[in-house]
């Protein structure tokens, strides 16, 4: 065991039990502690029919869980005990698109987080053009240089200590990647693609109402080889 240095020994530590905090305080502590978080701009449709309504909203309880097969996860929190349109649509169609947020459409995406009626199309309301997908019904965001077509792999409903359904975690199997040539890493073979971090200029989420990072530059990235 490595001993703490003198600074850590002298530091004043505070411990917080989640159950002792209010819901608002617990939320604030969680989102300011787990940073940065990837933002999934999720596009869905209400049904696979031609008259299905398109929905688009950002979610920062987002992660890649495995690459074999590629599985992404999103924690979709209920609002006032009611399922959000994104969750309703995913449960109805078992499909969605995970659009990776970048600086090029941050303002439009932030506007998509507003509460609007289920029959409203957030993409149209906020001037986001779309492109069709190949294997799922929802469209992808045209400005998203990285987008993943997802099909529902599994889901888990989360209940709090009072037995209230608070969140549904959806797991999606990526069935197709759409990568714009402008963000592909140079020198890679076609059968071994990589996304270039500096070309992508991704946006993440931190605490409060803060987006971070908002793009990258040479001063805030570090390549570090793994020890052998």
Structural notes for this entry:
The chain has 228 residues and is an alpha+beta fold. It is globular and about 55 Å long. It starts with 5 loop residues before the first helix and ends in a 14-residue tail after the last strand. The strands form 3 sheets. Strands 3-2-6-9-10-5-4 form a 7-stranded antiparallel β-sheet, with helices on one face. The relative contact order is 0.17. The model has no long low-confidence stretch (mean pLDDT 95). It has helices at 6-10, 23-33, 85-93, 106-111, 122-125, 197-200; strands at 37-38, 40-45, 54-59, 62-67, 70-77, 95-100, 130-131, 140-141, 146-159, 165-179, 203-205, 211-214. The protein contains 6 helices and 12 strands.
What is the element layout, followed by pairings?
Elements: H1 6-10, H2 23-33, E1 37-38, E2 40-45, E3 54-59, E4 62-67, E5 70-77, H3 85-93, E6 95-100, H4 106-111, H5 122-125, E7 130-131, E8 140-141, E9 146-159, E10 165-179, H6 197-200, E11 203-205, E12 211-214
Antiparallel strand pairs: 1-11, 2-3, 2-6, 4-5, 5-10, 6-9, 7-8, 9-10, 11-12
